[in-house]
Amino acid sequence: MPSPSLSTRDLTIRFGGHVAVNSVTCDFHPGETTVIVGPNGAGKTTYFNLISGQLPASAGRVEKSGEDITRLSPSARAGRGIGRAFQLTNLFPQLSVIENIRLAVQAREGAGWSLFRPAASRRDLIRSAEHYLDAARLTDRADMPAASLPHGDQRKLEVALLMAMEPDIYMFDEPTAGMSLDQAPAVLDLIGKIKADTTKTVLLVEHKMDVVRALADRIIVLHNGELLADGPPAEVMGSKIVRDVYLGTATEETA
Ligand SMILES: Nc1ncnc2c1ncn2[C@@H]1O[C@H](COP(=O)(O)OP(=O)(O)OP(=O)(O)O)[C@@H](O)[C@H]1O
């Protein structure tokens, strides 16, 4: 097992007297897709927000490849390779799909890129943008303004922009939410491509069991803010305590 790309150590957040994430310690590794499940209000989104920096921890730590990033801003964490779809503030609704992707590629290249660089390097940017456009199966939408894309294609563009930033950690919060049945497979396929790259760590929050089954190498279950179970999908979903939680029969003590 490679060393963890991402870890949380006793990660905790309190809202007044309510502990929404309670001392969660967990390691995530390259080449592994972990799906975070749990009943409504279990703390899944809050845990994500603590990892990506949208919320400050009350206690505990977040580490990226061993570096303590607990006090870093969301954008500083993104700069260290933590990519979360909604963090994308670089979407220009009036620009075309391909221009948006090209700008994301350019943003990754950072301050080093300049208008005065030779044309060849700009051709590289375009080639790179076309690669992500193709990966997202958006080639036929390349010249459409981003704002005019149908919802399903906007989600694909979101994933393409995330891919263009080449994070090590991909975080998806219900990536097919609000999509029709015929749109969802394209996004799942795209996540499958990311997952096939064994240098990447993928984290998903997901309610839909077919999505969990399709993508999970590992499932962690949160319940009342605590890590209730962690392991291979069949083992976790087959465990009595998890079934009890999903059937709503777990008590505070068993949790
Ligand atoms: N900013 C906040 N202020 C106060 N309480 C909050 C805040 N954010 C989340 N909570 C509470 O923390 C708990 C966990 O919420 P969270 O949204 O993380 O759950 P979840 O597992 O993602 O649920 P769902 O599956 O319904 O999205 C809930 O009780 C919620 O009301």
Automatic annotation (TrEMBL):
Keyword Nucleotide-binding on entry: yes
Swiss-Prot/TrEMBL keywords: ATP-binding, Nucleotide-binding, Transport
Every ABC transporter domain range: 6-249
Pfam families: ABC_tran (PF00005)
Top-level division of the source organism's lineage: Bacteria
A single cellular component GO annotation: plasma membrane
Alphabetized CDD domains for the sequence: ABC_Mj1267_LivG_branched
GO molecular function (one): ATP binding
Protein name in UniProt: ABC transporter ATP-binding protein
Organism per entry: Sulfitobacter alexandrii
